[in-house]
Amino acid sequence: xxxxLLGSLMLALVLTxxxxxxxxxxxxxxxxxxxxxxxxxxxxxxxxxxxxxxxDSQSTGNSPLKDPSNILSKRNIYFxxxxxxxxxxxxxxxxxxxxxxxxxxxAKVALQGNADERGTREYNLALGQRRSVSVKKxxxxxxxxxxxxxxxxxxxxxxxxxxxxxxxxxLNRRVDIAYEND
Amino acid sequence: xxxxxxxxxxxVIYCSVLLSSALAHAAxxxxxxxxxxxxxxxxxVPFAQANTQDxxxxxxxxxxxxxxxxxxxxxxxxxxxxxxxxxIKYAExxxxxxxxxxxxxxEVLPGNRLKVSFKLADVLKQTQLAGxxxxxxxxxxxxTAHKIADVIYQKLTGxxxxxxxxxxxxNKAKGRYALQVADADxxxxxxxxxxxxxxxxxxxxxxxxxIAYVSFEKKKPVIYIQSLMTGQRMxxxxxxxxxxxxxxxxxxxxxxxxxxxxxxxxxxxxxxxGTDLKxxxxxxxxxxxPTWSPDAKWIYFSSDRGGSPxxxxxxxxxxxxxxxxxxxxxxLSPHFSPDGKQLAMIRNDGGKFRVALQDxxxxxxxxxxxxxxxxxxxxxxxxxxxxxxxxxxxxGTLAAVSSDGRIKQRLSxxxxxxxxxxxxxxxx
Lengths: 182, 428
Description:
The structure holds two protein chains of two kinds. By secondary structure, chain A is an alpha/beta fold. Chain A is about 25% helix and about 15% strand.
């Protein structure tokens, strides 16, 4: 460990719950956990000084959606290679989530698209987005309104790394359903 | 590492220097293969150094060696150790076939300061080429060594050096993602921000004081701008859907970003304070990975509007997009050379994703890298080297290649999975 790293002021960010669509938020509240001044001498002349920020996600609340015996606990929809078509085997899963969303007008879901690791990160982010839009359209057809759905993508970031065959790659071609505050 | 064991004695020497450093285990280690055609033979005489911290002469020598433009001579056989011009016995250094030589001192001053003096001499003409003095805090010794290396580089090649610059990259280790910044030699790595959720797409502000990046801490891609010195973060874009691919304008007042706010991934321009969002591209396809031309007139971006992913350009004022790449079925991640004459990109070369360089006036394309999943090319401040991500097995690591393809380097940090490097500006 280098001295600057050891000496850097540790900051924790208290994150607010996921909100959609404000144009610009104020900077997240920053809590200074160190009781005293940083260990390294504060040196205004050192243009290479860096202050470290540590983000800790906070999971909020318990959800009936997590009951493993309930189909609502199933959240993954898999796709064929180079395809964004929702396969018939995932209809019951999507119908169950549509029913839940229609019954809980306050509930919001993010449909998180994923892609396998071949290609560049930002392009895969865009490819994952296409799959999430495809699932959104399925929910729309079942009556769920856009205001309860956000389509986002993780691209290849949640992909299993080091795949060499399609049995591995195909697990990365999916949309995950994530409930807000879940 | 094994592949380079036989490449050159100078790498072995360099390696032993690194291993002797107390910081070596934490730092990115750099492997070098190949070399430039015309290397200036130079002697870096060990400085008369009063403090016991990092050895300044070794840092300067390593910087020059890594540039590929110098052959750093072994000085162990010369008895004299001049630390100023007047002490140099030129015949000794001419016998070593040095064309140039650097001498200097590091003195400890009261108040925990250091005085670094350095002189560069032309061995054949027996004249002084440069002389500098720095009054610094001990924490700035490495940076000062890099600045001296850049003075030497500039005096002897006529171009600016890259040593006093930094690189940023994402390091995934122990289930956490960290945006880190290190010196251009891979030393002195510092964490800018870390999170259990992915962090991607870092981009330096042109003045090097801030980094824009995409964090998934809100369970979706959101663009942040963070000050390196204060750690203060600002959300640049958190619209419905994805917010990604931030790219600073050359003057630092705006960023090109990608949103799925209205529909599919499209390029927008937004002020650096988050105001005045404007849609730039209008297609029903994927438009992403925007980057500005150095003259700020054009935005180059990736799009699959023509069926396969290719690079297009559009005026920064808006308008019709024009296709830029025609060779190959897959070209992504455009990045400009500082002079605006060349465009680096990722090309799918028969299933292998590699760094390619396109000359924008002739259209000629050269493949520069040899990996299978190379990504994220970016140029050094002087345009001589490109930094990119490559993989060894499933682990990501960083590599660099000269823009003429002759010099290849690999950086690897033990224990991490390193990706998405981006080369920052020179530190003033």
